[in-house]
Amino acid sequence: MLGPFTIFAMFLYVLLCSLGIMANGFIVVVLGREWVRCHRLSPCDMILISLGASRFCMLWVGMIHDFYYFLHHLQYSKEPARQYFRIYWDFLNSTTFWFSAWLSVLFCVKIANFTHPIFLWLKWRVKELVPWFLLVSLLISFIVTMLYFVGNNALYQAFFQGTFSGNITYHSFTKNLEIHYFFPLKLITLSIPCSIFLVSIVLLITSLQRHSSKMQHGAHSTQDFSTEVHTRALKSLVSFLVLYAVSFLSLIIDVTLLSGLEGPWYWPWQILIYLSTSVHPFVLILGNSHLGGALRKLLLLPKTFWNDKRMSSPI
């Protein structure tokens, strides 16, 4: 029998994921139509549509997996469902982190002003590099997924064969594998894109400080505009950083939580894991003029339809 707290947390989880699916789907549809219409996308839109598609699929896979585990957690390790779910989820989670990191890099390259040759080269070649960044992210995610699959397959084979010696049980074998294999693997593979993300924010802050010091000697309209752009980008990235950090820490801590996940805190923990994936798309939509305009048009459709209906109806 489910308690009131579990039902409430489950409702919030479904609501959060549903909103995230709609927001990410909206990004994919709007930019997909733009791609079909113009046959090309800007570097920012390339990353946004890739990130939106990855998150859209990840939320669906995550919801199906979480409900399957919640309803069949006793048989979860006995069936190959763990491997099937984890293959898709690990790949999509890895691509999501990498695409998010490249989005912060793009913001930094487009907005920050540095004279270092490497930075100038990136600013000049960013249009050509973004597709390669995305392809490399897919390749890295595929390799990471295969490494996770090796561990998950070892768990499944160990349970299926049941060959343990001495005092080693399936639970202790799983605990050792989680701590000595999955935890270092997840820490390393997620720390790299997170480090890229943090470096981009630090560079933007440094660039903003340089502009602020220049404005003290003589303010110009171009400098004011540049400062405004820096501030707007930093606000977007800092808000994303909070969600990014919550998702990163929850995924790292989740490795060591083998017991109690089917308890009353199971759904609140899933909310933390998918908080960034579901909330950040709204930040991207509101901060993008093209996506924000499309959203306003969508919200005005019922009003426009009602006004047209009133005007066409006979008096």
How would you describe this structure to a colleague?
The chain is 85% helix and 0% strand. The chain has helices spanning 4-38, 43-71, 81-111, 117-161, 170-217, 221-254, 266-273, 275-287, 289-312. Helix 1 runs antiparallel to helix 2, helix 2 packs antiparallel against helix 3 (81-111) and helix 3 packs antiparallel against helix 4 (117-161). It is globular, with a radius of gyration of 23 Å. The termini are far apart.
Describe the protein's topology.
Elements lengths: L3 H35 L4 H29 L9 H31 L5 H45 L8 H48 L3 H34 L11 H8 L1 H13 L1 H24 L3
Q: What's the alpha carbon Rg, rounded to whole Å?
A: 23 Å
The end-to-end distance, rounded to whole angstroms, is 58 Å
Q: What is the overall shape?
A: globular
Tally of contiguous helical segments: 9
Report the portion of residues in β strands. under 5%
The largest sheet is:
none
Order of helices and strands: HHHHHHHHH
Low-confidence stretches: none
Quick check: average pLDDT? 82
Kindly name the structural category: mainly alpha
Work out the number of β strands.
Answer: 0
The percent range for helix content is: over 70%
